[in-house]
TrEMBL record:
Top-level taxonomy: Bacteria, Bacillati, Actinomycetota, Actinomycetes, Propionibacteriales
Name of the protein: UDP-N-acetylmuramoyl-L-alanyl-D-glutamate--2,6-diaminopimelate ligase
Reactions listed under catalytic activity: UDP-N-acetyl-alpha-D-muramoyl-L-alanyl-D-glutamate + meso-2,6-diaminopimelate + ATP = UDP-N-acetyl-alpha-D-muramoyl-L-alanyl-gamma-D-glutamyl-meso-2,6-diaminopimelate + ADP + phosphate + H(+)
Post-translational modification: Carboxylation is probably crucial for Mg(2+) binding and, consequently, for the gamma-phosphate positioning of ATP.
Modified residues (N6-carboxylysine): 212
Enzyme nomenclature, EC number: 6.3.2.13
Binding residue positions for meso-2,6-diaminopimelate: 374, 398-401, 450, 454
Gene this chain is encoded by: murE
Length: 492
């Protein structure tokens, strides 16, 4: 084994042996198919200055001509090393972290909008990508909701160098379980809700909750903002109040909370108003997104923004103007047409919330699929959630990945049909979108759920270009040109 005591100057860090550059630290971690230690020789040949690994990796390594360190909590050490190598970029910016099963992306976008209205340049990191203000930051690095700690620290360093004063970050349960946000002390963190998701990764719902609760442990943040109408949120608030390590701000609909959300009213076509009372003052909150669940995200955002020092008038102004790609995104169609809305809803709770919020505008035709190689047990629940609130549910494909699409559809259909209502199966997402539009009349709402902002569809052996909003536009154009759109079908 290499000398573990030698001093070495490191200039970068990576988990990918193919990305190693001279003088970098190579972190060898266990993967789904192989341990990174098996690629250590390649990393050293590319110039790695040292290797960090776990005990399993240490046993796999041959003698290397660079220092090797094994750590029990290797992911935490990696995160700390990454932060130091990039100059602790988070310390110079206001850091806001958001967790919850549903609503993280929307809340991060709302935070950015509120900060922008106050003249604060804010970076955003999450499911729909990385941005600084209105500019996208291209990246070939890990583009999961919360990147691995070396990628995350590199991204924070780029944002800081470009003048970011704040960063709003989606913090997934995976990120917390895998130590991706270690070495970051947040100024404000927010909890939205806990529903069923990611049980292909977590042992059970309790394990899933504990992963998210880690963001609210002592030393993680200065202020904890929690939606306490969610039972798990109430449990979490009690914990935070118990340890007292961060200031607790509660948001909910009952008396006694710090920010009380009341009087929600939908505004046609896609928006809503409500009031928020805090410190004896009642504020009017307006949102250009439909659904009470989005207003909940806005109330949590308002509390987080004020906790971060944002002036109230700027926060409210920013929230009013905010739009989120792929989240209740309206697709404009020519001529007398149904309302088409694209949304990322991909959990039972999110599907219910999306369809129910749209049902106040007219009968809803829902196009829905479920992802392959993910929690299969939620599929019938998603089908049932759609069927209960839709005039018609069209079950189709999402990202099947390595699973047979017909098997995924069968599981989703089972739940939808058990819930009752009109349910049909249409293989192929493009065909399903076209079928929904063919059946829709003006006054009908077509909800295309599951993929939202995504620009591709993941099949067994490839990823193909696929954008739900574009597909709806093209399908409508074909139908109107062919004269085959049938406004009466839904009522037959």
């Amino acid at each position: 084994m290499g000398d573990t005591t030698a001093d070495v100057s490191l200039t970068g860090i990576t988990l990918d042996s193919r990305a190693v550059q001279p003088g970098w630290l190579y972190v060898a971690l266990p993967g789904t198919r192989a341990h990174g230690a098996q690629f250590a020789r390649s990393a050293v040949e590319s110039g790695a200055g040292a290797i960090l690994t776990d005990d399993e990796g240490l046993a796999l390594l041959r003698r290397e001509d660079v220092p090797v360190v094994a750590a029990a909590d290797v992911r935490r050490v990696m995160a700390v090393m990454a932060a130091r190598l990039f100059g602790e970029p988070a310390r110079g910016m206001t850091m806001l972290g958001v967790t919850g099963t549903n609503g993280k992306t929307t809340t991060v976008a709302l935070l950015q909008a509120g900060l922008a209205a106050a003249g604060v340049l804010c970076g955003t990191i999450g499911t729909i990508g990385f941005r600084l203000g209105d500019a996208e930051i291209p990246s070939t690095r890990s583009t999961v909701t919360t990147p691995e700690s070396p990628d995350l620290q590199a991204l924070l360093a780029v944002m800081s160098a470009r003048g970011a004063e704040a960063v709003a970050l989606e913090v997934s349960s995976h990120a917390l379980a895998l130590g991706r946000v270690e070495a970051i002390e947040f100024d404000v963190v927010g909890f939205l809700n806990l529903g069923r998701d990611h049980l292909d990764f977590h042992r059970d719902v309790d394990d899933y909750f504990e992963a998210k609760a880690a963001l609210f442990e002592p030393g993680r943040s200065k202020v904890s903002v929690i939606w306490v109408d969610d039972p798990r949120g109430k449990e979490l608030a009690d914990r935070v109040a118990g340890h007292g390590a961060s200031r607790l701000v509660t948001v909910g609909t009952a008396a006694g909370v710090d920010y009380r959300l009341e009087c929600y009213r939908p505004v046609d076509p896609l928006g809503g108003t409500a009031t928020v009372t805090r410190d004896g003052e009642t504020l009017d909150l307006t949102l250009s997104l439909p659904g009470e669940y989005n207003m909940i995200d806005a109330a949590v955002s308002l509390a987080m923004l004020e906790a971060a020092g944002t002036p109230t008038d700027a926060a409210l102004r920013g929230l009013r103007a905010a739009q989120v790609p792929g989240r209740m995104q309206r697709v404009p169609l020519d001529g007398p047409a149904p309302m088409v809305v694209v949304d990322f809803a991909h959990t039972p709770q999110a599907v219910s919330a999306a369809v129910e919020s749209l049902a106040v505008l007219g009968p809803v035709i829902t196009v829905l699929g479920c992802g392959g190689d993910r929690d299969a047990d939620k599929r019938p629940h998603m089908g049932a959630a759609a069927a209960r609130a839709s005039a018609l549910t069209i079950v189709t494909d999402d990202n099947p990945r390595s699973e047979p699409p017909e098997d995924i559809r069968a599981q989703t259909l089972a739940g939808a049909r058990a819930a009752g209502g009109d349910v049909v199966e249409v293989p192929g997402r493009r065909a399903a979108i076209e079928e929904a539009l063919r059946r829709a009349a003006p006054g009908t709402v077509v909800a295309i759920l599951g993929k939202g902002h995504e620009r591709g569809q993941i099949l067994a052996d490839r990823t193909v270009d696929f954008d739900d909003a574009q597909e709806a536009t093209h399908a409508w154009r074909r139908l109107t040109e062919e004269g085959t759109q049938d406004a009466a079908t839904l009522d037959e």
